[in-house]
Amino acid sequence: MATKRTGPRGGTKRATGRKTSTRAKSAEKRATSSGSVTKTTRAGRTATTNGARKTGSKTASRTRARASTAPLAEYNAKRDFTRTAEPTGKIPKDRGKALHFVIQKHAASHLHYDFRLELDGVMKSWAVPKGPSLDPTVRRLAMEVEDHPISYNTFEGTIPQGEYGGGTVMLWDRGTYEADDDGGVESLRRGYEKGELRFVLHGKRLQGGFVLARLRRPGRPQWLLIKRRDDHADADRDIAAEATTSVVSRRTMEQIAAGRRVWHSNR
Ligand code: MN
Questions:
Q1: What is the pTM assigned to this prediction?
Q2: Residue 75: inside a domain
């Protein structure tokens, strides 16, 4: 295992300077009372690694707040940026543009689809083992993972074996998204906090309404990703099986794995 970075990237300074949610504020308080943010981050990572074993313990029940300790602290702590081509976690200035989403097919130790929604300067992220479905009767398990930087939205390539998330990453879909009511980002924030996030995707492969609904289970938050009933719902199609190439480079997973590391920088 490579040395993990627990450094100050995306650290406390930024966290205190940003508009933070109630949850983020309480997480910061906890971080302070426990001595340091890094310490809390480590605890979060421990809980992640041993997720199943720690389920039900007090540590596990607190892991929900972990991601808010300092923006992208967990993301940065898990990665050695001298070894992976993934971007470092930084929060860009809010320029009031449309919110983006991205879905990355990720052949790590277990194949999954990383579903990411931009919110407050980061990509809220879920690992969806079976990928999205267009069938409104299908509920896809979506395990919440650490927030990712927005710059991750252009990442396609390979993460070296032995590194965190080692394996091939394909840009499977991307586009913009919005709240399904007229509530804008406030509505999305509320939905995320409440555990019932309703939104409309404007992607190349996925369009229309979806809901992410958080399950009441101990440990790391698990959600269900469900297509809502609208013109884009289609119970007869298996979109994950149909679409097997990159929405950006048109490459298959095999071609990405065989090719050179591809990096589309944010211009
Ligand atoms: Mn992943």
A1: 0.70
A2: no
